[in-house]
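User: For a benchmark we're assembling, each entry needs the component sequences followed by a predicted structure for the full assembly. Here are entry 17's components. Please fill in the structure.
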Amino acid sequence: MKLEEEVVRRQRERARIVGWLLGAFVVLVFFITIAKTRMNW
Amino acid sequence: MPAIELTTPAALPADWRDILALTKPRVMYLVVFTGLCGLLAAPAMPPFVLGFTAILCIALGAGACGALNQWYEADLDAKMRRTAKRPLPAGRMDRQSALHFGVGLAFFSVLLMGLATNWLAAGLLAVSILFYVLIYTVWLKPRTVQNIVIGGAAGAFPPLIGWVAATGHMSALPLLLFAIIFLWTPPHFWALSLFVRSDYAAAGIPMLPVVAGVENTRRQIFIYSLPMAAAAVAPWLLGLTGPVYGACAAVLSFVFLVLAGRVLANRATEPAQMAPEKKLFAYSVFYLFALFAVLVADRWLAS
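Assistant: Structure for entry 17:
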């Protein structure tokens, strides 16, 4: 595999993982907010 | 970017597996487990998502410690067989990326802990990260033979953080859990350092077997095992746990002392003949897992 192709492959792979992690973080923050709101009721 | 500039492995973007390896995931299990036990043993149970987030933050904080430790010790790691294949010494990642990743992860874990649980837990997490990186890695480890003794405090924080994340305050039991891990760390690491001491010597790290010799280390392992065993049964003696924990802690600690006694009796100096040391190291991991699992079981049985 050429070096340039390897760079692109790694960048794409990392971008995909970061995307999933950010999505999971948004979901987590949503549920944290719900839980904290319920605790303060 | 022209391909001709990309001549070294570090010039490539780091593979995600190397970024994951930077967090030392194998070391993280024990940290996460003891933190989870601290949370589960607490008298107040937070909502699931907040408890989950607290444990996640402890794991991320431990990952930040691993990354910053590898960033600082990249040169030392290159000299030791056990660590030479890590991403930084092997040249699969550049040091600046590791530093940015570690600092970012540390800030993120503390901030998320504070927002999700409470700021006392976040403060303790911040102190544990700073203690591990600045006090242990930068200051103590390369300078003094007592590095593991004092530095062990960094690894003792997770159950305290877990408890405080659940309750919002400290009490006697989580402080005893802190003491157990604090006193467990020297015999655990010294047992390991006995059979990998040539690695530490090659890297110039003043571990006890390198500086004070094998026999002295064996004596210190046994001496430190005694207060560790006392701390392990103390929660029961002080009436903070039930008899199930007390009986299990006594048996587990007795076996630990027997194995430490065998290490003390061993006269071998070659790593190949250090079966008692290897057995004590393996048992010490099981010991901590079992002790904390029994503690949670006992607290749940009592409630």
